[in-house]
Each structure stands twice: as C-alpha cells, then as structure tokens.
Specification:
This protein is of the alpha/beta class and about 130 residues long. Helix content is about 40%, strand content about 20%. It contains five helices and six strands.
C-alpha cells in the first residue's frame, strides 16, 4: 500500500508559504508540520490547519516527516540542515545552501560523513 510523502517546512514566511502552495498542488505529497518561531508564521500555519513547532528540536522530539524543506533565513541553513541530517531526515535547503563557501563545504562533508542521502537545492554558485 502506497502512502503520501510527508513533508515539513522550517520557515513559514513568503518562501515557506510558496512551498506550502506547491505541496498542496502536488498529488502524493502532504505537508504535515511547520517549524516557525515567529507569530506571523505561526498564525499562517494555524490558518492552514498545520501543527506548528517553535524550533526544529521540538519538531523532531514530537513529530516526524519524510523530508524537511528549509525556507529559513540564510544564516540558519547550515545549522538546521545539520540537525536534520543528524536526525536522519532528508533535507532540501533553499538557496543559498550557506552564506559562505566554507560553510557549504562543512555541510556537504557532514552529510557525506553521515552517509545520508540529502537533497540540495543548489541553483547558484555558492560552492563552486
């Protein structure tokens, strides 16, 4: 029996809500939770009927998803992606993957060391 892919979004501002709309328009995929510390994003998640967690650690302690989309401020991409990897959760990182090429390399090395399949949205020259 097939089941839908269950995704969560960290960051529910403009970009996170765009991902929400794309997920809603895609068959076989469900948005199951949002990670968002800000009141505006929390209200937006509530309006969508989605459970909302204040931080990524709280999400992993209380919930589960097949993958996480990071639509957070750029400075949070690396630490949040590393947390997802540490929890064994595939992660799609919005561009840029990191704010420096050194941080991008550290993240990629971390994912490689964990021998974990991760999804990267690398559409710019951040690590080239």
């Amino acid at each position: 029996m097939n089941r839908n892919v269950r995704l969560a979004i960290a960051g529910f501002g403009l970009v996170g809500r765009r991902h929400c709309d794309a997920i809603a328009a895609t068959s076989g995929v469900d948005l199951v939770a949002v990670v968002e510390p800000g009141e505006v994003g929390q209200r937006a998640a509530a309006e969508q009927g989605l459970p909302c967690f204040n931080d990524i650690e709280e999400f992993f302690a209380r919930s589960h998803a097949d993958g996480m989309i990071l639509a957070t401020p750029n400075s949070l991409h690396v630490p949040l992606a590393m947390t997802c990897i540490d929890y064994g959760c595939p992660v799609l990182v919005e561009k840029p993957i990191a704010t420096t090429s050194d941080d991008a390399r550290v993240l990629v090395q971390h994912a490689t060391k964990k021998l974990f399949r991760s999804w990267w949205d690398i559409t710019d020259d951040t690590i080239r």
